[in-house]
């Protein structure tokens, strides 16, 4: 079986049974940022030391002993939108222990406004399906409309929009190789202009589908 996955996902210890949500949820980021500029980023044979990057990001975020950095606010805002309240360390651990976090692009970008090439998004789509088939999430919540627009059209069915306060949020599902459905939607990227209380209302409705 081909392996297109370079950045291995973070898998919460309680993910298999859905943790505090009682449902298997995959949180889908778009990309990592790195200023090394390696021309062969994403090559498992040459950069094995980078394959745990995603897991390291979550490990740093969840370690109270690690100095707080600006990027961590993205995770704070998003986790609040999963539970509808401000989060302390105990709740934070329960949330991330309950989910899978995976970054879509399998090569690092140079900065937050940088997007991948068509070939990189295409290869990322193959990695995405490998992760879906391996971890069998019931729901995928993608970070940002740029990512949502680049996600694969294969094996996809459109669902009904979720409408909250007159704002429409598209949903749908992927059909896995075993015939199971994985429901998907996107939130605004939680790094900027993210109203976690609004997105909690959307996400709550999504997880009832």
Please give a structural write-up.
Helix 2 packs across helix 6. A hairpin with a 2-residue loop joins strand 6 and strand 7. Helix content is 32%, strand content 18%. The strands form 2 sheets. Strands 1-3-2-4-9-8-5 form a 7-stranded mixed β-sheet, sandwiched between helices. Strands 6-7 form a two-stranded antiparallel ribbon. It has a domain of 140 residues. By secondary structure, the chain is α/β, with parallel strands linked by helices. About 5% of the residues have low confidence.
Briefly, what is this?
With 209 residues, the protein is α/β, with parallel strands linked by helices. It has 6 helices and 9 strands.
Distance between the termini: 32 Å
Mean pLDDT: 88
Assign a percent range to the helix content.
25-40%
Stretches with pLDDT under 50, minimum 5 residues: 37-47
Q: How much strand?
A: 15-25%
Radius of gyration: 16 Å
Shape: globular
Number of helices: 6
Q: Count the strands? A: 9
Profile the largest sheet.
Answer: 7 strands, mixed
**Strand sequence of the main sheet, in spatial order?**
1-3-2-4-9-8-5
Structural class by helix and strand composition: alpha/beta
The topology string of helices and strands comes to EEHHHEHEHEEEEEH
């Amino acid at each position: 079986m081909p392996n297109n996955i370079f950045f291995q996902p973070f898998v919460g210890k309680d993910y298999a049974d859905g943790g505090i949500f009682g449902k298997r949820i995959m949180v889908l980021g778009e990309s990592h940022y790195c200023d090394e500029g390696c021309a062969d980023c994403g090559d498992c044979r040459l950069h094995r030391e980078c394959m745990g990057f995603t897991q390291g990001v979550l490990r740093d975020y969840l370690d109270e002993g690690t100095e707080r950095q600006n990027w961590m606010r993205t995770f704070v805002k998003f986790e609040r939108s999963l539970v509808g309240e401000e989060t302390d360390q105990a709740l934070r651990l329960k949330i991330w222990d309950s989910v899978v976090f995976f970054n879509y692009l399998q090569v690092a970008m140079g900065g937050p406004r940088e997007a991948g090439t068509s070939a990189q998004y295409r290869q990322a789509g193959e990695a995405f399906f490998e992760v879906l088939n391996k971890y069998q999430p019931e729901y995928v919540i993608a970070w940002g409309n740029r990512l949502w627009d680049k996600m694969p059209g294969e094996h996809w069915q459109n669902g009904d929009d979720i409408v909250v306060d007159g704002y429409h949020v598209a949903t749908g599902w992927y059909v896995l190789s075993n015939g199971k459905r994985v429901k998907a939607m996107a939130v605004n990227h939680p790094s900027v202009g993210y109203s976690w209380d609004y997105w909690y209302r959307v996400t709550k409705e999504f997880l009832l589908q």
